[in-house]
Each structure stands twice: as C-alpha cells, then as structure tokens.
Design a protein that fits this description.
There is one protein chain. The protein folds into 2 domains: 88 residues, no CATH class; 151 residues, Rossmann fold. 30% of the residues lie in helices and 26% in strands. It contains 9 helices and 12 strands. α5 packs parallel to α6 and α8 packs parallel to α9. The longest helix has 15 residues. It is globular, with a radius of gyration of 19 Å. The structure holds S-adenosylmethionine. Pfam families: PrmA.
Amino acid sequence: MTDELLSLGALSASVEEYRTLDAPEQEIFGDSSKVWERCTVQTLFSASTDVGAILALWHAQSGSAAPLKYEAGGSSAHVEEVPDQEWMDSVRASYQPACIEEGLWIVPSWCEPPEPTATNIILEPGLAFGTGEHPTTRLCLKALARLPLAGKRVIDYGTGSGVLAIAALKMGASEALGTDTDALAVHSAKFNAGLNGVAASFRTEQCGASPDSPEPLAAAGLADVEASFDVCVANILQGPLLELGPRLASYLKPNGVILLSGILVEQWAAVKDVYEPFFAEFEVASEGKWALVTGVRSDS
Ligand SMILES: C[S@@+](CC[C@H](N)C(=O)[O-])C[C@H]1O[C@@H](n2cnc3c(N)ncnc32)[C@H](O)[C@@H]1O
C-alpha cells in the first residue's frame, strides 16, 4: 500500500493501527493474516498536488490488488493542509527513547540517548514497522540480547525498519542480511543502518514483489544464503510463518537458532507443526497475547 502511494508521488506514507475508544484491542487483532484488522494510512504530498486525482488513482490501483474497506460513515479519506514544521513536530513528539531492558534502548534519531553507554539503536521512526513500540519487536530484541552473537551471521526476515538486524550487529554479530517484501521497509532499514554506523555489515534485499509469494532469496541472486546463518529472526505473522518454515530452516547452519514472532500465543500450536520437522528445544516467551518462540536447528 505504501509502495502505491510513493509511486503516486507521496513524500511519505505510514500505516498505523486504527484505534477507537470503543474497539477493544482483541477485536482489532482478530485476523492472523493481517497485522491489524483495520489501519490508518497517513501520507504526505506537496501542497501543489491535485489530491482528488491522487485519491482517484489510488482507489483504482488498490481496488484490484488489495481491496480497501472504509469506515461505515462513508468517508474514505481526510485531507488536511499542514505547515512543514508542524507536521515534523507532531511526528517527533509521538516518539520518545524507549528502554527495552536494562542497557538496551531504541532512540529516535533526533534525541540524545538517555544512557550513552547502553546499546542504543538509533531509528528514524515512521517509515516502516519496527519502532520498538510493538510487543513482538521488544520480545525479539530481548531474545537477541540473550544470544551469544559475537561473530555470528544473522538473517532478519521481514526486517521492517531494520531494528532487529541493527540490534544484532550492535550486540556483536559480524554480518546481517535484512529482507522484506516492502520496498519502503528496505529503504528504511538501509537508512537506519547508516544512522547506527553498521551499514558496511548490513545487507538488505527486497524479497519479491508480492507479500503472499515472495521468492526465495537465492532467486534474487543471493548465492550465499543456504545453510549459512547462525541466527534467523522472523517477526512476520502467522500466515507467512506457516508458508516460510522450510525456507527459513534452509537458511540456518546446523544448530542455528530461530526466533519466531508476530504470532499470538494461541497460534503457536499450528506454527509448531510446520517448524517441528526442522527445529527442537522450543521455548515460548510472551508479552500480553503475543508470543516469541526460540528453536534450535535440529538436522543438517
Ligand atoms: C511485524 S513487521 C516486523 C518489523 C521488524 N522486524 C520488527 O521486528 O519490528 C513485519 C515485516 O515483515 C514484512 N513481511 C511481511 N510478510 C513478509 C514475507 N512473506 N516475506 C518478507 N517480509 C515480509 C512486512 O513488510 C513488515 O515490514
């Protein structure tokens, strides 16, 4: 969706969870195939843009690929003119440094790290999922912090902002590959890697145009992906995790560690069926209803 908006000339596009006071969280997170049952898309165009024409084009493009549902009230879009400075300020005010656990922080790029000697992951938030606000990101970061990462190769499947790969590199990993179906996420991950001084050891790759059928990384010309990673982290929801099990397993060395998240605790049983032929020693952690599963590659 953000790709479509950017191709229409948007200066920025972000997708956020839609919240209302009368919609409890559990109703919003009902469908395992989507991050959110409903979402708000916020996009910025230059003031000279013909917004009516853009909306018509976007509706036409989106109609076939990803049908959009609008609110019962019937209004499909709210358009507002915003001064540059006010928009920047309001985005910035909504992100603050976040302590994930002792010694591990996510810090927006315009803030001073509250604990300069900690592992500080500097992010330009808002471009892609992975600001540290979601429980699944925090679960993955805490799990990474418990692994012996020094000198390890890490693959971050569904990298979003790159937050997990960047954290792994700052915690000692020697090399990381971040992949995502979303071009904006890949751009954002690269940008954030630069902010953290880890760009030289962080490769990014867009893995297929369709989120439903991303091609294997080898098909994207990456020759060194099979059985070559020590750690694979994939925070990408139940649907893709069910589809990707054998492929994610193939990227890991024997005894490599997999971290799976993006699933609800109650969804683990179904996901386990797909991963059990390849992994053992499963451990499940949770925050609220979200789960993080750690497993160890059990065959070669
Ligand atoms: C929940 S976000 C996780 C972002 C970040 N890794 C984090 O933990 O905060 C999931 C990301 O996976 C990407 N994604 C979804 N399905 C995918 C698939 N089948 N293959 C690769 N990436 C996918 C999405 O575009 C999104 O950026």
